[in-house]
Amino acid sequence: MSTLRDDDFWDGPVQEPVLPKTGQRSRGRSVTKTERVETRGRARALQALYAADLRDQEQLRRIATIVFDDLAIDAEERAFASKLVATVADRGAQLDEALAEVTNNWRLDRLGAIERSVLRLAAAELARDEAPVKVVLQEAVHLAERYGTERSARFVNGVLDAYARKLGKL
After folding, report:
1. β-strands 25-26, 29-30: how paired?
2. Residue 12 has what pLDDT?
3. Please, are residues 34 and 19 in contact by the beta-carbon 8 Å criterion?
């Protein structure tokens, strides 16, 4: 029987162990602690963006701190998530404006909170230019599918593809 604890909702069951960074393979690909931290960091940043979207976007940094403290996330995840949250906090209006230009027939404020938060997260990560574009897009689609719906994932994929092309990254 599943409970609705925060950890269960946001993290889900752990399906594969985190392997040390020794080049061991799992299901045909290398699994490193770095990948896991970044993936979990994106999910944590999404939690903060979602909470701020529902409460008060102007208080994003404060809300993120509360969310991260309440969940007692580890330092590496927190550092990664905090960078993404800071980018949205600092450049939110600019990111929203750029996303609105590629969301054909959809105003950003009419999107669901999950979709809007995932789009902001991915746009912030693309702006930081620290991860490969395809990784950012793939992770965003995965988050949209995991916390939204399959339809959300298709929508996010289409918008972010157009956004990355507009930026000249694809």
Report:
1. antiparallel
2. 47
3. no
Contact 163, 133 (CB under 8 A): no
73: region left, alpha or beta (phi > 0 left; psi from -120 to 50 alpha): beta
> Please, what is the Cα angle at 144 between 138 and 137, to 5 degrees?
20
Q: What single DSSP character describes residue 168?
A: T
- C-alpha 170/C-alpha 166 separation (Å) is 8
Going by the DSSP 8-state scheme, the letter that residue 19 receives in this structure is P
Q: How many CA atoms lie within 13 A of 17 on its CB side?
A: 5
Please choose, from the candidates 119, 113, 107, the residue with its C-alpha nearest in 3D space to the C-alpha of residue 156.
Answer: 119
Q: Is pTM, for the whole model, over 0.90?
A: no
> By the 8 A CB rule, do 116 and 53 touch?
yes
Expressed in angstroms, the distance from the first to the final Cα of the chain is 43
Mean pLDDT of 45-63: 96
Encode pLDDT of 114-125 as tens digits: 999 999 999 999
Write out pLDDT tens, residues 38-47: 999 999 999 9
